[in-house]
Backbone:
């Protein structure tokens, strides 16, 4: 098998490719073909292999991330799904948690359930919270429901019974019967998809899994067939939302875990760079054609969470979307990308996103029929993007069309010319992203000062320095391959899988054997999935628990002490760990409070094969390279257009120092260095932008 490794990231606008062979790297961006994503993937693989003078036989590994699951949930384009649930609980998806994301909005709009009420089928059965069978599962009723499901031409089935996270017997039996009676319809069981307490979140996650399962399974089947026909014989792995990678079979079974898989690759990219450069506190900034993603990376690891919301109705408003209880990289994602559509709202303000022009037709400057004004159009008008060098010169952009769209959708309403309309658009999107970063950092109980920003994605290097200026960040790193950062991140991610199971355990009456058995079972399940992907001699196991004081509504993630839970002193060590975590967030403990455990998590990972570390990262000697020419660039602070030196990134050498303002052009993106910063090329090619010292 070959030594080449390829990462593939399907985004809302572009599909990115990163090929690595020994110390060589080749990258590629192609417009995403939404109607047939596998077409773009297969064509891109052929192109990048030709560029590398290689063949499918030379490829040893393919790692893939996709937005297909996310987009299906947002656009409501999934399968016709039914929910089979405990009698009396068919309306859980609409009752939700009985909370409101806008407390005083009398006309509040809540997200519609993925399953309409007429496709939710109650079944007589009941197991109580202690495992007692109050009512046997009615197999006759389940058989009748199966016939109704067939008549309704249902394409996917979700099963969620009360308390099945801990006592799954009825749910497993229901799944067995439904799969036998309806073998062509995929069945998702909540005890397998999300075995955690809180029935609304568990049912919502299971329904979402069922909703996207036919779409993802069909896509992966077509992709595998296409790869086989093209001569690829290497393994294909999928990126998970948690930052690990897994097999195609696991992805087909639990496609909901692919939500946010692309952004998770970006977080893995930033975390790898942070570890390489020994950076303790990082803000990861990923901006592509459709969205911008920000997350914190501390001590070389991205922050993670156990919950996530998708398809929010209220922008930035927690509780306005569909909750998913899955392991996920904790980040804020906003509709702010190069393709984000711009308009003037009813109050006369410039508004940007979240709607996007996508790849078809795309921004007006693409010349493919797009009529709305976008951020990319603004960047072209300001001189940040060279119309003749976009996407490595494979696309020539139409600057007059960009100017016309900005005048029509922004300028005419505000009496601005195209240049000042473009300045307004960039100011709004950069302030929106900076505000999202501030809120996210505060919500995490962290501090943004002193952090290093790592910027990547096709659009991030265009806006990173200005955004860092707004945040008071003094240092920005733009790594090599920044334009396809998430695809490279896939190649830095471990083979990993995480299993989470709920069990309510009071710390003052610690059930050590119950905890030991649960952790052993979870580790065996996670280890089996990892070993199925790659028989590893060495794996790393991480065990955590979600804890709170009894009666509280929110939990903290606490690392479990080392060793067997049945050993003497384990409960006391866990109490100390909980109190340390609680004090770090809230600065105090709750007197007389009784800590309790709710969910236990076990993550098993096999480390990836990584390129060798660059030992020299910062250079003391500095050279002043010669630019290839100049390009007019508009200063968004003064509005003045001036000629700015242009450098080609591939021609820069370690130790080169660029004084801002300057433009650095490369195939997949452009780096804008403002006059308040200077940029040094590091030993590994990373461009290190630092704020000028004030004398």
Residues:
């Amino acid at each position: 098998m070959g030594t080449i490794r390829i990462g593939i990231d399907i985004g809302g606008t572009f599909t990115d490719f990163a090929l690595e062979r020994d110390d060589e790297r080749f990258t590629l961006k192609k417009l995403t073909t939404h109607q047939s994503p596998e077409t773009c993937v297969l064509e891109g693989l052929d192109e990048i292999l030709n560029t590398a003078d290689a063949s499918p036989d030379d490829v040893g590994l393919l790692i893939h991330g996709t937005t297909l699951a996310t987009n299906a949930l947002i656009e409501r384009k999934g399968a016709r799904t039914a929910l089979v649930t405990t009698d009396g609980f068919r309306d859980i998806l609409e009752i939700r948690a009985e909370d409101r994301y806008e407390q005083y909005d009398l006309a509040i709009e809540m997200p519609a359930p993925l399953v309409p009420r007429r496709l939710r089928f109650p079944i007589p059965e009941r197991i109580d919270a202690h495992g007692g069978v109050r009512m046997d599962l009615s197999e006759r009723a389940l058989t009748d429901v199966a016939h109704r499901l067939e008549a309704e031409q249902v394409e996917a089935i979700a099963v969620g019974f009360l308390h099945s996270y801990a006592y799954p017997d009825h749910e497993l039996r229901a799944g067995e019967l439904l799969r036998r009676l309806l073998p062509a319809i995929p069945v998702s069981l909540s005890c397998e998809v999300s075995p955690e307490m809180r029935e609304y979140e568990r049912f919502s996650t299971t329904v979402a899994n069922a909703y996207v399962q036919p779409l993802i399974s069909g896509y992966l089947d077509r992709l595998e067939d296409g790869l086989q026909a093209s001569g690829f014989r290497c393994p294909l792995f999928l990126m998970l939302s948690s930052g690990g990678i897994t097999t195609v079979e696991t992805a087909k079974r639990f496609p909901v875990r692919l939500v946010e898989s692309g952004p998770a690759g970006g977080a893995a990219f930033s975390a790898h760079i942070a570890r390489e450069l020994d950076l303790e506190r990082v803000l990861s900034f990923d901006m592509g054609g459709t969205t911008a993603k920000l997350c914190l990376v501390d001590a070389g690891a991205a922050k993670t969470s156990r919950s996530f919301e998708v398809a929010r109705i209220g922008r930035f408003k927690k509780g306005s979307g569909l909750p998913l209880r899955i392991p996920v990289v904790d980040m804020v994602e906003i509709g702010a990308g190069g393709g984000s559509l711009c308009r003037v709202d009813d109050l006369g303000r410039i508004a940007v996103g979240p709607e996007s022009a996508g790849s078809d037709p795309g921004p007006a400057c693409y010349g493919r029929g797009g009529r709305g004004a976008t951020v990319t159009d603004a960047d072209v008008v300001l001189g940040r993007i060279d119309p003749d060098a976009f996407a490595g010169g494979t696309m020539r952009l139409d600057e007059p069309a960009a100017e016309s769209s900005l005048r029509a959708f922004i300028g005419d309403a505000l009496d601005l010319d195209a240049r000042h309309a473009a300045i307004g658009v960039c100011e709004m999107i950069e302030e929106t992203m900076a505000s999202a970063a501030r809120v996210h950092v505060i919500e995490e109980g962290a501090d943004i000062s002193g952090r290093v920003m790592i910027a990547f994605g096709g659009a991030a290097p265009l806006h990173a320095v200005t955004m860092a200026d707004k945040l008071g960040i003094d240092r920005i790193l733009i790594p090599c391959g920044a334009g396809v950062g998430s695809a490279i991140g896939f190649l830095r991610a471990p083979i990993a899988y995480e299993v989470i199971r709920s069990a309510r355990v009071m710390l003052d009456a610690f059930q050590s054997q119950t905890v030991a058995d649960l952790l052993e079972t979870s580790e065996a399940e996670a280890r089996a999935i990892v070993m199925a992907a790659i028989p590893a001699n060495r794996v790393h196991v991480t065990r955590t628990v979600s804890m709170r004081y009894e009666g509280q509504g929110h939990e903290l993630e606490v690392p479990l002490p080392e060793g067997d839970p049945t050993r003497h002193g384990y409960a006391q060590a866990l109490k100390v760990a909980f109190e340390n975590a609680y004090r770090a967030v809230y600065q105090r403990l709750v007197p007389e409070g009784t800590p309790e455990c709710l969910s236990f998590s076990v993550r098993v990972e096999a480390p990836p094969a990584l390129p060798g570390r660059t030992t020299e990262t910062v250079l003391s000697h500095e050279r002043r390279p010669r630019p290839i020419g100049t390009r007019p660039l508009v200063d968004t602070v003064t509005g003045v257009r001036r000629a700015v030196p242009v450098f080609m990134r591939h021609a820069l050498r370690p130790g080169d120092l660029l004084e801002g303002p300057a433009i650095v052009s490369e195939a997949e993106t452009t780096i804008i260095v403002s006059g308040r910063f200077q940029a040094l090329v590091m030993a590994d090619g990373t461009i290190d932008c630092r704020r000028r010292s004030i004398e």
